[in-house]
Amino acid sequence: MTGTLINVATVILGGTLGTLLGERLPPRIRRIVVQGIGLVVLALGMDSALETNNFLLVLGSVLIGGILGEWWQLERRLDGAGKWLEAKAARIPFLTRGEFVRGFVTASLIFCAGPMTVLGSIQDGLSGDYTLLAIKSVLDGFSALAFAAAMGMGVTFAALAVLIIQGALTLGAFLFESILTTPMITELTAVGGIIMLGLGLTMLEIKRIKVANFLPALIVAPLLAALVEWLSLR
Question: What are the Cα distances from residue 221, in Å, to 10, 103, 126, 150, 180?
Answer without folding.
Answer: 29, 27, 19, 33, 12
